[in-house]
Amino acid sequence: MGNIDYDKKACVFNIQRYSIHDGPGIRTIVFIKGCPLRCKWCFNPESQDPRPTKDFGSMMSVADVYKQIKKDEVIYRRSGGGITFSGGEALTQPDFVEELIKVCNANGWTTAVETEGYISERTITRIIPKLDYVLLDIKAIPEDVHRRGTGVSNHRILKNALLINQLAKNVVVRVPVIPTFNYSKKQINYICEFSKYLNNVNTLHLLPYMTVGRKKYKKLGRKYEMGDIAPLSEDDLLPLKEIVEEHGFNCVLGG
Ligand code: SF4
User: Fold this and answer.
1) Which residues form the Radical SAM core domain (predicted)?
2) Given this structure, which CATH class describes domain 9-253?
Protein backbone atom coordinates (compact mmCIF):
# COMPACT_ATOMS: atom_id res chain seq x y z
CA MET A 1 0.00 0.00 0.00
CA GLY A 2 2.36 2.67 -1.21
CA ASN A 3 1.58 6.31 -1.59
CA ILE A 4 -0.40 6.57 1.65
CA ASP A 5 0.64 9.11 4.26
CA TYR A 6 0.15 7.06 7.43
CA ASP A 7 1.41 9.92 9.60
CA LYS A 8 -1.34 12.37 8.64
CA LYS A 9 -3.30 13.29 11.77
CA ALA A 10 -6.70 14.62 12.81
CA CYS A 11 -8.63 14.83 16.04
CA VAL A 12 -10.88 11.75 16.35
CA PHE A 13 -13.42 11.55 19.17
CA ASN A 14 -14.87 8.10 18.63
CA ILE A 15 -14.56 4.97 16.52
CA GLN A 16 -17.81 3.05 16.61
CA ARG A 17 -18.00 -0.55 15.42
CA TYR A 18 -20.95 -2.62 14.13
CA SER A 19 -23.08 0.22 12.77
CA ILE A 20 -25.90 -0.71 10.41
CA HIS A 21 -27.39 2.76 9.94
CA ASP A 22 -24.66 4.74 8.27
CA GLY A 23 -24.25 3.25 4.81
CA PRO A 24 -24.57 -0.29 3.41
CA GLY A 25 -23.60 -3.44 5.28
CA ILE A 26 -21.92 -3.47 8.67
CA ARG A 27 -19.65 -0.48 9.16
CA THR A 28 -17.21 1.20 11.45
CA ILE A 29 -17.75 4.93 11.91
CA VAL A 30 -14.79 7.22 12.39
CA PHE A 31 -15.95 10.41 14.12
CA ILE A 32 -13.71 13.37 13.35
CA LYS A 33 -13.89 16.57 15.40
CA GLY A 34 -14.70 20.00 14.02
CA CYS A 35 -18.03 21.41 12.80
CA PRO A 36 -18.83 24.94 11.61
CA LEU A 37 -22.53 24.59 12.46
CA ARG A 38 -24.13 25.00 15.88
CA CYS A 39 -27.37 23.02 15.61
CA LYS A 40 -29.46 23.55 18.73
CA TRP A 41 -30.24 19.83 18.96
CA CYS A 42 -26.69 18.56 18.23
CA PHE A 43 -26.28 15.32 20.16
CA ASN A 44 -22.52 15.35 19.75
CA PRO A 45 -21.77 18.89 20.97
CA GLU A 46 -18.30 17.73 22.02
CA SER A 47 -17.57 17.21 18.31
CA GLN A 48 -17.90 20.86 17.31
CA ASP A 49 -14.53 22.13 18.54
CA PRO A 50 -11.83 20.83 16.14
CA ARG A 51 -9.21 20.52 18.89
CA PRO A 52 -8.84 17.82 21.52
CA THR A 53 -10.53 19.06 24.71
CA LYS A 54 -10.26 17.85 28.31
CA ASP A 55 -12.47 14.77 27.93
CA PHE A 56 -13.14 14.58 24.21
CA GLY A 57 -10.99 13.52 21.29
CA SER A 58 -7.34 12.82 20.67
CA MET A 59 -5.01 13.34 17.75
CA MET A 60 -4.83 10.09 15.78
CA SER A 61 -2.73 9.24 12.75
CA VAL A 62 -4.00 7.35 9.71
CA ALA A 63 -1.94 4.40 10.99
CA ASP A 64 -3.68 4.57 14.42
CA VAL A 65 -7.13 4.55 12.79
CA TYR A 66 -6.15 1.78 10.38
CA LYS A 67 -5.17 -0.42 13.31
CA GLN A 68 -8.65 0.04 14.82
CA ILE A 69 -10.79 -0.31 11.70
CA LYS A 70 -8.89 -3.35 10.48
CA LYS A 71 -10.33 -5.39 13.37
CA ASP A 72 -13.60 -5.96 11.49
CA GLU A 73 -12.30 -6.47 7.97
CA VAL A 74 -13.93 -9.92 7.67
CA ILE A 75 -17.30 -8.40 8.62
CA TYR A 76 -16.97 -5.62 6.02
CA ARG A 77 -16.25 -8.13 3.28
CA ARG A 78 -19.09 -10.47 4.22
CA SER A 79 -21.67 -7.69 4.59
CA GLY A 80 -20.57 -5.32 1.81
CA GLY A 81 -19.79 -2.84 4.56
CA GLY A 82 -16.82 -0.66 5.29
CA ILE A 83 -15.94 2.66 6.81
CA THR A 84 -18.10 5.76 7.31
CA PHE A 85 -16.54 9.13 8.09
CA SER A 86 -18.65 11.25 10.39
CA GLY A 87 -18.28 14.03 12.91
CA GLY A 88 -18.60 16.85 13.57
CA GLU A 89 -18.05 17.42 9.89
CA ALA A 90 -15.52 14.88 8.65
CA LEU A 91 -14.76 16.90 5.52
CA THR A 92 -13.26 19.72 7.58
CA GLN A 93 -10.23 17.35 7.55
CA PRO A 94 -10.02 16.43 3.84
CA ASP A 95 -6.32 15.45 3.87
CA PHE A 96 -6.91 12.91 6.64
CA VAL A 97 -10.08 11.51 5.05
CA GLU A 98 -8.36 11.21 1.67
CA GLU A 99 -5.57 9.09 3.11
CA LEU A 100 -8.08 6.85 4.89
CA ILE A 101 -10.05 6.43 1.65
CA LYS A 102 -6.84 5.15 0.06
CA VAL A 103 -6.43 2.67 2.93
CA CYS A 104 -10.03 1.45 2.45
CA ASN A 105 -9.65 1.14 -1.31
CA ALA A 106 -6.45 -0.87 -0.92
CA ASN A 107 -8.34 -3.27 1.37
CA GLY A 108 -11.55 -3.47 -0.68
CA TRP A 109 -13.76 -1.79 1.98
CA THR A 110 -16.52 0.55 0.88
CA THR A 111 -16.36 4.18 1.97
CA ALA A 112 -19.10 6.60 3.01
CA VAL A 113 -19.31 10.09 4.47
CA GLU A 114 -21.98 11.80 6.53
CA THR A 115 -21.79 15.47 5.66
CA GLU A 116 -23.78 18.60 6.42
CA GLY A 117 -22.49 20.12 3.18
CA TYR A 118 -21.04 23.29 4.69
CA ILE A 119 -17.62 22.79 3.13
CA SER A 120 -15.58 24.27 0.28
CA GLU A 121 -16.27 23.40 -3.35
CA ARG A 122 -12.61 22.46 -3.60
CA THR A 123 -13.05 19.78 -0.93
CA ILE A 124 -16.19 18.49 -2.61
CA THR A 125 -14.58 18.13 -6.03
CA ARG A 126 -11.52 16.52 -4.49
CA ILE A 127 -13.12 14.03 -2.06
CA ILE A 128 -16.73 13.25 -3.04
CA PRO A 129 -15.94 11.35 -6.31
CA LYS A 130 -13.58 9.10 -4.35
CA LEU A 131 -16.29 7.88 -1.95
CA ASP A 132 -18.78 5.08 -2.59
CA TYR A 133 -21.68 6.67 -0.64
CA VAL A 134 -22.61 10.14 0.52
CA LEU A 135 -25.19 10.71 3.27
CA LEU A 136 -26.05 14.37 2.83
CA ASP A 137 -27.92 16.29 5.52
CA ILE A 138 -30.55 18.76 4.33
CA LYS A 139 -32.06 20.35 7.41
CA ALA A 140 -34.36 23.13 6.17
CA ILE A 141 -35.02 25.09 2.98
CA PRO A 142 -36.21 28.53 4.20
CA GLU A 143 -33.01 30.43 4.94
CA ASP A 144 -34.32 32.03 8.15
CA VAL A 145 -35.46 28.68 9.56
CA HIS A 146 -32.10 27.11 8.79
CA ARG A 147 -30.17 29.97 10.33
CA ARG A 148 -32.29 29.91 13.47
CA GLY A 149 -31.72 26.19 14.00
CA THR A 150 -28.10 25.79 12.94
CA GLY A 151 -26.47 29.21 13.26
CA VAL A 152 -25.63 29.44 9.54
CA SER A 153 -27.33 30.27 6.24
CA ASN A 154 -28.10 27.30 3.99
CA HIS A 155 -27.14 29.03 0.71
CA ARG A 156 -23.78 27.33 0.56
CA ILE A 157 -25.21 23.96 1.62
CA LEU A 158 -27.94 23.93 -1.05
CA LYS A 159 -25.50 25.02 -3.75
CA ASN A 160 -23.08 22.29 -2.61
CA ALA A 161 -25.91 19.73 -2.60
CA LEU A 162 -26.30 20.28 -6.36
CA LEU A 163 -22.57 19.72 -6.86
CA ILE A 164 -22.48 16.65 -4.60
CA ASN A 165 -25.44 15.24 -6.56
CA GLN A 166 -23.39 15.54 -9.76
CA LEU A 167 -20.19 14.06 -8.38
CA ALA A 168 -21.27 11.34 -5.94
CA LYS A 169 -21.57 7.69 -6.98
CA ASN A 170 -24.49 7.19 -4.56
CA VAL A 171 -26.19 9.89 -2.55
CA VAL A 172 -28.93 9.77 0.06
CA VAL A 173 -30.55 12.82 1.66
CA ARG A 174 -30.86 12.68 5.45
CA VAL A 175 -33.18 14.92 7.41
CA PRO A 176 -32.94 15.17 11.18
CA VAL A 177 -36.56 15.87 12.14
CA ILE A 178 -36.57 18.35 14.99
CA PRO A 179 -39.56 19.78 16.92
CA THR A 180 -39.80 23.61 16.77
CA PHE A 181 -37.55 23.51 13.66
CA ASN A 182 -38.65 21.28 10.78
CA TYR A 183 -41.12 18.84 12.35
CA SER A 184 -44.01 19.78 10.07
CA LYS A 185 -45.53 18.68 6.78
CA LYS A 186 -44.72 22.10 5.34
CA GLN A 187 -40.99 21.93 6.06
CA ILE A 188 -40.63 18.33 4.86
CA ASN A 189 -42.54 19.26 1.72
CA TYR A 190 -39.97 22.01 1.01
CA ILE A 191 -37.12 19.54 1.46
CA CYS A 192 -38.78 17.06 -0.94
CA GLU A 193 -39.31 19.80 -3.52
CA PHE A 194 -35.65 20.77 -3.32
CA SER A 195 -34.51 17.13 -3.44
CA LYS A 196 -36.20 16.75 -6.83
CA TYR A 197 -33.38 18.91 -8.23
CA LEU A 198 -30.98 16.19 -7.06
CA ASN A 199 -31.61 13.74 -9.86
CA ASN A 200 -29.33 11.08 -8.36
CA VAL A 201 -31.27 10.98 -5.12
CA ASN A 202 -34.07 8.48 -4.79
CA THR A 203 -34.08 7.89 -1.03
CA LEU A 204 -34.63 10.21 1.92
CA HIS A 205 -33.91 9.19 5.50
CA LEU A 206 -35.93 10.85 8.25
CA LEU A 207 -34.09 10.76 11.57
CA PRO A 208 -36.23 11.36 14.68
CA TYR A 209 -35.09 13.94 17.24
CA MET A 210 -33.24 12.32 20.14
CA THR A 211 -32.23 13.77 23.47
CA VAL A 212 -29.18 11.57 24.05
CA GLY A 213 -26.85 14.58 23.91
CA ARG A 214 -28.64 16.57 26.61
CA LYS A 215 -26.34 15.57 29.49
CA LYS A 216 -23.22 16.40 27.50
CA TYR A 217 -24.11 20.10 27.43
CA LYS A 218 -23.90 20.28 31.18
CA LYS A 219 -20.51 18.62 31.13
CA LEU A 220 -19.37 21.18 28.55
CA GLY A 221 -20.76 24.05 30.64
CA ARG A 222 -23.25 24.94 27.87
CA LYS A 223 -26.99 25.52 27.85
CA TYR A 224 -29.11 22.91 26.05
CA GLU A 225 -31.35 25.12 23.96
CA MET A 226 -33.94 22.43 23.18
CA GLY A 227 -34.94 22.45 26.86
CA ASP A 228 -37.10 19.49 27.85
CA ILE A 229 -38.73 18.88 24.46
CA ALA A 230 -39.54 15.15 24.25
CA PRO A 231 -37.82 12.91 21.70
CA LEU A 232 -39.73 11.76 18.60
CA SER A 233 -40.47 8.14 17.81
CA GLU A 234 -40.47 6.58 14.36
CA ASP A 235 -44.28 6.43 14.62
CA ASP A 236 -44.35 10.22 15.02
CA LEU A 237 -42.70 10.46 11.60
CA LEU A 238 -45.20 8.28 9.71
CA PRO A 239 -47.26 11.24 8.36
CA LEU A 240 -44.03 12.81 7.09
CA LYS A 241 -42.97 9.53 5.51
CA GLU A 242 -46.20 9.60 3.54
CA ILE A 243 -45.30 13.03 2.16
CA VAL A 244 -41.84 11.89 1.14
CA GLU A 245 -43.34 8.89 -0.67
CA GLU A 246 -45.99 11.05 -2.37
CA HIS A 247 -43.08 12.98 -3.89
CA GLY A 248 -41.82 9.71 -5.41
CA PHE A 249 -38.88 9.02 -3.05
CA ASN A 250 -38.19 5.94 -0.96
CA CYS A 251 -38.33 6.89 2.69
CA VAL A 252 -36.36 5.21 5.46
CA LEU A 253 -37.13 6.07 9.07
CA GLY A 254 -34.18 6.32 11.40
CA GLY A 255 -31.75 5.19 8.66
S1 SF4 B 1 -24.03 19.58 11.73
FE2 SF4 B 1 -24.10 17.79 13.06
S3 SF4 B 1 -22.22 17.86 14.28
FE4 SF4 B 1 -22.50 19.89 13.36
S5 SF4 B 1 -23.57 21.06 14.95
FE6 SF4 B 1 -25.12 20.20 13.56
S7 SF4 B 1 -25.75 18.27 14.49
FE8 SF4 B 1 -23.79 18.89 15.47
Assistant:
1) 21-250
2) alpha beta
